[in-house]
Amino acid sequence: MSDLLMWLPGILMSYAAFLLGIASPGPNVLAIIGTSMSVGRRSGISLAIGVAAGSFCWAVLSVAGLTALFAAYAPLLTAIKIFGGFYLLWLAYKAFKSATLAHDLEARTLSGGSRSAAGYALRGFTIQMSNPKAVLAWIAVVSLGLHGDAPLWVGIVIVVGMSLLSVGLHILYAVAFSTTTMIGIYSRARRSIQATLGTFFGVAGLKLLLDET
User: Fold this and answer.
1) Cβ of 203: how many Cβ atoms within 10 Å?
2) From its phi and psi, is residue 4 left (phi > 0), alpha (psi between -120 and 50) or beta?
């Protein structure tokens, strides 16, 4: 029980960072929304499943990579924390900047015409895995909950938890944002969401930079 209480705050911090990151839609989420609106919910859900599968792969690679690096070279933990902290501060800056801009949510449609359900899932997976910024974001988010002396179960909980969140939230986007009404509701709340995101990432970034453990 004591081990759980010791690692739980970091795990929850990783979850929260991931949740708020998805609350600020990037190209992948905008593609899901656009597909749901232009093609249909079924295709949007297939695309969402593919994106979530890519998120799972990035989560596994990030946790496994960081665990291996910590085991081989423990002092690297400091460098990872510094990188993660500054990257989160950069995300905070982007979120605050976005909150000042007067633009609405712009859904995107995929090129190449309609596809089968499997085709949309594969496209979602490919989009997520080919995103060069994804690995940087995952390392930063995972480093909030994973430290050099973390037991194996911490990495597993982080991977499983964020993978389940990814599946559920991406599918929720596909279902909820298949109507223009939801697009309008989100657009009106966008600035508040971005400001909240910026505040959280700023606090999380400073926590990583100032944490002495």
Assistant:
1) 13
2) alpha
CB 144 within 8 A of CB 70: no
Nearest to 41 by CA among 175, 166, 191: 175
Per residue of the chain (213 residues), give pLDDT as tens: 567 677 888 888 888 888 877 766 666 777 887 788 777 888 889 999 998 898 888 888 888 877 776 666 666 667 777 877 887 888 788 878 877 876 655 555 555 556 788 888 988 898 788 776 677 777 777 877 777 677 888 888 888 888 888 888 888 888 887 776 776 777 677 677 778 878 887 888 887 788 755
> What pTM value is reported for the model?
0.73
Report the run of H or E that residue 135 belongs to, with start and end.
Answer: helix 132-143
| Pair of tokens at residue 187 | 């657009």
Do residues 195 and 94 touch, judged by C-beta distance below 8 A? no
Q: Residue 111 CB: number of other CB atoms within 10 A?
A: 5
Q: Strand locations in 77-132, DSSP E?
A: none
Token pair for 4: 């759980």
| Structure-token pair, residue 104 | 């609405």
Contact 167, 121 (CB under 8 A): no
CA–CA distances in Å: residue 141 to residues 12, 48, 83, 198: 11, 21, 11, 14
Rounded to whole angstroms, how far apart are CA atoms 193 and 201? 12
